[in-house]
Amino acid sequence: MLAENSYGKSGIRLVKVLRRGGRHEFRDVTVAVSLEGDFEAAHVAGDNRAVLPTDTMKNTVYSLAQDHLDGAIESFGLFLSGHFLDHNPPVRLARVALFEHPWERLVVGGKPHPHAFRRPGGERRVARVTRTREGAAVEAGLEGLTVAKSSSSAFAGFLRDAYTTLKETHDRILATAIEASWKYAAPGDFDAAFAEIRQTLCDTFAGHESASVQHTLYAMGESVLEKHPEVTQVRLSLPNKHHLPVDLSPFGQQNRNEIFVATEEPYGLIEATIRRK
Amino acid sequence: MLAENSYGKSGIRLVKVLRRGGRHEFRDVTVAVSLEGDFEAAHVAGDNRAVLPTDTMKNTVYSLAQDHLDGAIESFGLFLSGHFLDHNPPVRLARVALFEHPWERLVVGGKPHPHAFRRPGGERRVARVTRTREGAAVEAGLEGLTVAKSSSSAFAGFLRDAYTTLKETHDRILATAIEASWKYAAPGDFDAAFAEIRQTLCDTFAGHESASVQHTLYAMGESVLEKHPEVTQVRLSLPNKHHLPVDLSPFGQQNRNEIFVATEEPYGLIEATIRRK
Amino acid sequence: MLAENSYGKSGIRLVKVLRRGGRHEFRDVTVAVSLEGDFEAAHVAGDNRAVLPTDTMKNTVYSLAQDHLDGAIESFGLFLSGHFLDHNPPVRLARVALFEHPWERLVVGGKPHPHAFRRPGGERRVARVTRTREGAAVEAGLEGLTVAKSSSSAFAGFLRDAYTTLKETHDRILATAIEASWKYAAPGDFDAAFAEIRQTLCDTFAGHESASVQHTLYAMGESVLEKHPEVTQVRLSLPNKHHLPVDLSPFGQQNRNEIFVATEEPYGLIEATIRRK
Amino acid sequence: MLAENSYGKSGIRLVKVLRRGGRHEFRDVTVAVSLEGDFEAAHVAGDNRAVLPTDTMKNTVYSLAQDHLDGAIESFGLFLSGHFLDHNPPVRLARVALFEHPWERLVVGGKPHPHAFRRPGGERRVARVTRTREGAAVEAGLEGLTVAKSSSSAFAGFLRDAYTTLKETHDRILATAIEASWKYAAPGDFDAAFAEIRQTLCDTFAGHESASVQHTLYAMGESVLEKHPEVTQVRLSLPNKHHLPVDLSPFGQQNRNEIFVATEEPYGLIEATIRRK
Question: Is the per-residue pLDDT at D49 higher than 90?
Answer without folding.
Answer: yes
